[in-house]
Design goal:
13% of the residues lie in helices and 46% in strands. The protein is built from 2 helices and 24 strands. The strands form 6 sheets. It has a 4-stranded antiparallel beta sheet, with no helix packed on it. It has helices spanning 9-12, 24-67; strands at 79-84, 92-101, 107-116, 121-132, 138-149, 152-163, 173-177, 187-191, 196-201, 204-209, 217-220, 237-242, 248-254, 257-264, 267-273, 276-279, 285-289, 296-301, 307-312, 325-330, 337-343, 346-354, 360-368, 372-375. The chain is globular and about 85 Å long. The chain is mainly β.
Length: 376
């Protein structure tokens, strides 16, 4: 007979039902999985937030790319000059490089503007308002020299010219010292002959011969029956534009607002109200953007004094908004318009063209301070 001791529940429980101790390595692995899961749960909100933040610029980029006009590799004719960011050198920090392009998109560096590495001293150089000569063989531009010495700042403005003809390796040369002539705030820079440059200051037009040291020719501008609206430290006139046929146009701040004025042998003729404008090479059409802006370029006939057409244009969407047309140029043959559009907060404008087919296309260049031109 079995003994009572062997009939107790504890002794009759099968061995397979007895809890087994987990091996040390399995227990450690289990704890590691549980710890990893717990960590992942704690980090999940941060990971989701990070992915959402990363998705914002990616989404903006994709939307901008989808809404942008098609790109082209270069201009259809002539030469383009533009100021764009460039690589720094060993001794100085290069702010911008002035580049020259040819049909097809190939570019070459013409000259630099500089900023010293030592922000407490030295001379900063800024280049503005590049302008092709009528035959495209020369380029003029304004250079601003900003000297910093012991917290004191002085600014000198100069006009420089360089040869662009094939095979010429001449460096840019200064042809006129604006500051020495007490001219500080000029507007516009254009050629009124093969060797003469014209610019404006208030109601005065200055013509400078780049091949001589003769003093500039001064001409008081005629604005017809309109009256100038001169604000302190703001020039009343902007941007001279000349055609091969001798038509002279400029933008004036008049009592009627910003207005294009045409100089003709019989006197000044008021043109359209325009925020920005460009006179075509033949001198018989003005492309302009109304003061209110918008995505349209209007065409005004100098011959008839009437509006001829509206050209809708487009550009890519920007999350920061406030994009607007900032400058205009005609192609050398007068068949195509180029225009720049601001892109906040980037300080460089994008460049587009619109041809006779009415379609907008984007060029692969950007330019600072609307410092660009289109010539032969």
């Amino acid at each position: 007979m079995p003994s009572p001791e062997n009939n107790t529940p504890e002794n009759n429980t099968p061995e397979s039902n007895t809890p087994q101790e987990m091996p040390d390595d399995a227990l450690a692995a289990s704890k590691e999985v549980e710890g990893g899961t717990s960590t992942l749960r704690r980090l999940r909100p941060w990971l989701i937030g990070f992915l959402l933040i990363a998705a914002i610029p990616i989404g903006i980029t994709l939307i901008g790319a989808v809404t942008s006009p098609p790109h082209v590799s270069g201009i259809p004719a002539g030469h383009f000059v533009y100021l764009e960011a460039d690589s720094p050198s060993e001794k100085t920090t290069t702010l911008r490089g002035l580049f020259l392009t040819e049909p097809g998109g190939k570019s070459r560096l013409l000259t630099h503007e500089y900023e010293p590495q030592d922000s407490d001293g030295g001379v900063r150089e800024w280049i503005t308002q590049p302008a092709f000569s009528p035959d495209g063989s020369r380029l003029a531009f304004e250079k601003q020299l900003i000297s910093l010495q012991e917290e004191k700042q002085s600014i000198d403005n100069q006009i420089w010219v360089m040869d662009l003809a094939p095979g010429t390796q001449k460096k840019p040369r200064m042809v006129f010292d604006l500051s020495a002539q007490h001219l500080k705030q000029i507007v516009g820079l254009a050629w009124d002959s093969a060797s003469s440059i014209v610019f404006l200051e208030d109601q005065i037009s200055y013509s400078v011969d780049t091949d001589s040291t003769a003093p500039p020719l001064r001409t008081t501008l005629d604005i017809g029956k309109a009256s100038l609206a001169i604000a302190p430290d703001i020039s009343a006139t902007r941007g001279p534009s000349l055609s091969a046929g001798g038509t002279f146009a400029f933008s004036a701040e008049t009592s009627l607002g910003t207005q294009v004025v045409l100089q003709k042998p019989a006197g000044a003729v008021p043109g359209p109200s325009a925020a920005i404008f460009a006179l075509n090479p033949a001198g018989d059409k003005i492309a302009f953007v109304p003061p209110g802006g918008g995505k349209v370029i209007r065409i005004f006939s100098v011959t008839t004094g009437k509006f001829e057409a509206d050209i809708p244009v487009q550009w890519g969407w920007s999350a920061f908004g406030r994009r607007k047309l900032s400058s205009l140029r005609w192609s050398p043959d007068g068949t195509t318009l180029a225009f720049t559009v601001s892109k906040p907060p980037v300080p460089e404008d994008e460049i587009f063209i619109v041809g006779q087919d009415g379609k907008t296309r984007q060029l692969p260049y950007r330019t600072g301070r609307s410092a660009w031109d289109w010539g032969k």
